Amino acid sequence: MKLDQICFRTSHLEQSWTLDAYRQVGGYQVLENLLKNKMRPEEILEQVKNSALRGRGGAGFPTGLKWSFMPRRMPGEKYIVCNSDEGEPGTCKDRDILRYNPHQLIEGMIIAGYTIGAGTGYNYIRGEFYEPIERFEAALKEAREAGLLGKNILGSDFHFELHTHIGAGAYICGEETALLESLEGKKGQPRYKPPFPAGYGLYGRPTTINNTETLASIPVILQYGGDWFHEIGTQNNGGSKIFCMTGHVNKPGNYEVPLGTPFSELLELAGGVRDGNSLKAVIPGGTSTPVVPGDKMLQLDMSYDGIGKGGSMLGAGSVIIMDEKTCMVKALKRIAYFYYEESCGQCTPCREGTGWLYRVIKRIEEGQGKQEDLDRLVNVAENINGNTICALGDAAAAPVMSFIKHFRDEFQYHIDHGHCMEHTG
Amino acid sequence: MEFLLINHPLDCPICDQGGECELQDLSMGYGDGVSRFTEGKRVVKDKDIGPLIQTDMTRCIHCTRCVRFGQEIAGIMELGATGRGEHMEIGTYVEHSLVSELSGNIIDLCPVGALTSKPFRYKARAWELTAHPTIAPHDAVGSNIELHIRKNDVMRVVPRDNEAINEAWLSDRDRFSYLGLNSAERIAEPMIKKAGQWQTTDWQTALETAVEGVKGIVAKHGPEELGGLISPTATLEEAYLFQKWLRGLGTKNIDHRLRQQDFADSQSDFSLNDWALADIDDSDAIVLLGSNIRAEQPIIAHRIRQAALSGATVSNINFFESDLLMPVQHQLAVDAKDMAYYTLAGIAKALTQANKEDAAEWRELLGERRPSPFEQNVALQLSNARNATLFVGDLINHHPQASVFRALAKLIASLSKTTLVILPTANSNAHLKAKTLPSENGMNTMQMWQSDLCAYVLMGVDPQMDTAIPDDARRALKRASFVVAINSFHSDVINEHADVILPAACFAETSGTFIGIDQQWQRFAGGVEPRGDSRPGWKILRVLANVSQLNGFEHISSQDVVDEIESEWNMGQKPASHDFIPESFSVTSDLMLISEVPMYRTDSLLRHSNALQQTPENKANDVARMNQQEADKRGVNHQLPVIIKQGENQISLPLEIDDAIADGCIYVAAATLASVAIGRMFGQVEITQAGPSS
């Protein structure tokens, strides 16, 4: 069987978010079977490892490996946390999983809890997601009523409770340790690592944090087997992935396709570049990944390793398409403004540096740029990169460095002439 | 480096931190000479966080040390970071003054000029100051400090690291008391009263007048008509020479226990051997008895808090509940009349039951008391501990039944193998060594004031503010025919009733020895010249003895005095001690006035430190407090002031309903102008509501 749609596998059904719809595609059967057969967590872990499922939140860390770090035999409470904060500009996939297939996430979290020995789960959902929160809450209610959550799930001796936590819309709370701080009721600021959450997580207890899409993939992996999932994608890049096609395409939206699909095919699925314009640049994984020039991008495959060859990252699969009319200075200004506003303020390079970057880019865009600004921007970004507790600093630096590397001429033009090149803007 | 300076103003020339700024040092070491940052810098509104700390929040580099200090050390998170990224600000969120008694430490912690000392603002540059090590005299800790001196002025005080004593911290009281040194109330010259008028004079005349007067009284009425009282803040040397001189004149009436009312247990031995402040850290059970520890001994409170955080159980028994800023296991506000008969006797009884061991002398007194759950819990807490400590504080020591309470505390301690620590007042351990205590058949403080002696010699004593019964002191001095005051500050009662005033040097101006709670002899030298024509106390006393033609006063330095004390101490016999056992616990008390000396009013120097007097906690002292139930019972409310009556004396104060106060008690802060008129600061009172017209 060839199945591309994993997280969106109910999308052909009416009211795909209900328990009935989910049951129609075989939902909760995996959970029932593993509870009935008292499946050993090691077996589940083996399947997940075989699947080559990699974290869908952006870092692409192998999920099976992450789960294996959990001290599952350690007494006391352990937690599974789902990161549905989805703050990366350009990303809109987790929202749709919550809206159209929340039960698959719930099943995935229960299975994850079973595997790592956690009795409590939290789904940290971004505060702006009104509809997804409502859908997820409704799904939780259905699941509880069906005996899929709570004490002695489906008559077994396994207990698992799942709660929704609504964030307040801070980008930094998508960072896993800041998310934990926020979940604990504190100001969302990342923690030093190590200790990693698997050793010292929520309330100081062992915790695993996975992205929504990652957890929602679990039931399907266990239904059809890890090897089957792996084969959908390419070597070490198992499964399908949702790509959020945004920007200058004719049919923007979420497309779930196997990893390894050529970018050109994906672009075609999304209806091609608007107005038949030519492709100028693509940010393949959300604004925190480096930009890739269009011609280069057309030769790449959409997989973690494939995009890596183009000098960027697959990230959360948030593909931002920019056509020839785009002013790269203006685009970078908007991105830099985002990081300036969203820096949490804990580390000096990021707190102070993001503001500096933004102000200089703004000046260039407004025609007040100076010749030395270009090298200075790169130098400041380099000084931020790698010098902060979390990856937000790196994320702020990456676009600046890559935009100037690939489109230096446009920046130069702005400095020299005080406005955009004629065909852009 | 570059990033740190982006939003940091380059206002070093007008910044108080200049010259001792960590950021400045780092910039000098690692920064570029020219800034590459050409955009605008941010500006942050300054916050008003009280009279002690000045803020310049634009200079803040968000290291959050002050926030961590609040969380980890002070135990009260008053400062926090609001806002994200570049919009992050340090502040109190809702504007208020910091109330932590250790708040001044954030001045030292702040690496830049964002938090600086308000009284020190724009006063001097770090490189103009000379550091002079000395000891803080305001509590029994003897915190190690450094005076920062320019020319002949103490410009500020900072802590000196001593892990055994104050670690790296300093209480606000010790940090800002120096501001009293240059008060206009300082006595600058020797003065004598002639025909009811004060005249300044030279030292020779003043000393001769003093000695003539005192000797005249002794010759005419006998030495028993002479009394000497000295403040427990005085140095070991001053204490020693004070009693040596007065004993040389023949009197037995000498005391330093100015606020004590009950002396029945004078023979009991409460001394501690080999006990150090660091032992608090090893305690796994701590019971506070009658001690508002945060105000009384802030550094000890800090140590107890650290012990509590690492697992020690803490209980608090007092006449009112207080927020100790640490996890407290058991807390009880006890009615003054129940303290001995119920609470303490109950704990003791529970311990004898648990130990199956009997304290023979106490059998009848403890009787058939059945301990309450609270009493049993505290008993268990103490007896189960590996290393328990029981602290007894001022509220017990100043109580009219102090002896009974302390005897019970001693019993509890011995039954549960607990270390008993009677918290000393300032340098009072040195005074015990120097024997500023009545000789056999001599009078103690209370007897001296109540016997209307013919002559008094006072050293560092403000009869109004420093005594248990200001009313008695006033009357006694009024009736006395001759009064000598060796003081640093003017005070109304002294000016009215003294005949000779000898200006004494203050803290920081004299050398001496401090013996704190841990029995360490800490020597220090004077840092600045005494104000005006005042002289170090030990010199004044030595010359007084010389003028009195007494032998054995040939000391030429304070070290000579210490040597003499040491050899006398080593040769001397330890005084015989026997425990005090009360005859009964019966206390009849209807409404008890309980009072403690507010943190910033414990001695003259503090009372003249403007910044400390302006702190909100100090200003909040002019009220009476009682709980709602008690107020209802007595038909009073907070809408009008209440009149508190004691015999013929009465005062009128606003009433504040405070449910932390125990039943049967009304709380009034001592040593304030509003409260001294009541007479006995700890005693029975009656209360009525003031009429609308009054």
UniProtKB/TrEMBL annotation, chain A:
InterPro entries listed in its UniProt record: ComplexI_51kDa_subunit, NADH-UbQ_OxRdtase_51kDa_CS, NADH-UbQ_OxRdtase_suF, Nuo51_FMN-bd, Nuo51_FMN-bd_sf, Nuop51_4Fe4S-bd, Nuop51_4Fe4S-bd_sf, Soluble_ligand-bd
Listed PROSITE patterns: COMPLEX1_51K_1, COMPLEX1_51K_2
Highest taxon above the source species: Bacteria
Cofactor(s) annotated in UniProt: [4Fe-4S] cluster; FMN
Pfam families from the UniProt entry: Complex1_51K, NADH_4Fe-4S, SLBB
SUPFAM superfamilies: Nqo1 FMN-binding domain-like, Nqo1 middle domain-like, Nqo1C-terminal domain-like
NADH-ubiquinone oxidoreductase 51kDa subunit iron-sulphur binding domain sequence ranges: 329-374
GO biological process: cellular respiration
Keyword list, A-Z: 4Fe-4S, Flavoprotein, FMN, Iron, Iron-sulfur, Metal-binding, NAD, Oxidoreductase, Quinone, Translocase
Catalytic reactions of this protein: a quinone + NADH + 5 H(+)(in) = a quinol + NAD(+) + 4 H(+)(out)
Entry's EC annotation: 7.1.1.-
Leading EC class: translocase
Annotated GO MF terms: 4 iron, 4 sulfur cluster binding; FMN binding; metal ion binding; NAD binding; NADH dehydrogenase (ubiquinone) activity; NADH dehydrogenase activity; quinone binding
Similarity section: Belongs to the complex I 51 kDa subunit family.
Purpose of the protein: NDH-1 shuttles electrons from NADH, via FMN and iron-sulfur (Fe-S) centers, to quinones in the respiratory chain.
Protein name: NADH-quinone oxidoreductase subunit F
From TrEMBL, chain B:
Sorted UniProt keywords: 2Fe-2S, 4Fe-4S, Iron, Iron-sulfur, Metal-binding, NAD, Oxidoreductase, Quinone, Translocase
Molecular function via GO: 2 iron, 2 sulfur cluster binding; 4 iron, 4 sulfur cluster binding; metal ion binding; NADH dehydrogenase (ubiquinone) activity; oxidoreductase activity, acting on NAD(P)H; quinone binding
SMART domains named among the record's database cross-references: NADH-G_4Fe-4S_3 (SM00929)
EC id: 7.1.1.-
Pfam family, one: Fer4_Nqo3
Residues covered by the 4Fe-4S His(Cys)3-ligated-type domain: 1-31
Names of required cofactors: [2Fe-2S] cluster; [4Fe-4S] cluster
Domain 4Fe-4S Mo/W bis-MGD-type: 129-185
Top-level EC class: translocase
Reactions catalysed according to its record: a quinone + NADH + 5 H(+)(in) = a quinol + NAD(+) + 4 H(+)(out)
One GO cellular component, as annotated: membrane
Gene3D superfamilies (UniProt xref): 3.10.20.740, 3.30.70.20, 3.40.50.740, Dimethylsulfoxide Reductase, domain 2 (3.40.228.10)
UniProt key word 4Fe-4S: yes
Biological processes per GO annotation: ATP synthesis coupled electron transport
Cofactor note: Binds 1 [2Fe-2S] cluster per subunit.
Physiological role: NDH-1 shuttles electrons from NADH, via FMN and iron-sulfur (Fe-S) centers, to quinones in the respiratory chain. Couples the redox reaction to proton translocation (for every two electrons transferred, four hydrogen ions are translocated across the cytoplasmic membrane), and thus conserves the redox energy in a proton gradient.
Family: Belongs to the complex I 75 kDa subunit family.
Name this polypeptide is given: NADH-quinone oxidoreductase
